[in-house]
Fold:
Amino acid sequence: MESSKRAGAIVQLSGLMVLYVCLVQSSVSAAAVTVAQGVVADSDQQVLKELMSAFDRAEFAAQRADLDALMQFYEEGYNYHGLKRHDVRRVWAEVFSHYAHVMSKHLFTDLKVVRSGTAMKAYVTCTGMLFGNEKESGKHITIDSWTGEVHYLVKDKEAWKFVGNVGGALPEVPASSAPHHPLF
Structure:
């Protein structure tokens, strides 16, 4: 089992699952990664590392409530069931205005990588939650949660960016599944 450690989070690939957990600390933290061998195709190991790094950077920006840094991870043409990039910026601004110590947990249960020439897309099936402390009361609450959501990402130059549902859903995703989580 391969692993590297950084303060504050655990990423674990076990069976067909990646557990990506960011824990509350007094300072902003990055993630540690543990990957079980043989779960992700050898050809997708580098993609998995790049995706985890992208989620680390997004998480770091969210923990700092750095809206401009966080929005760097959204593709200009972002579209999540009709919500555009500017809508997501507004939602994140509202989250940061009402909550402190914002962080998320992600349980990745599937990864599909599509290559077309030099273009790459990734479809990451995820269950997770976004939580923080209400600024007014200090109460720790779940801000958002999602089950079986597919994060659509595209590699733009050297960076992975969140795309939403642009380009349609994978054939395995039921057309009746409701949108749960526009922030990723």
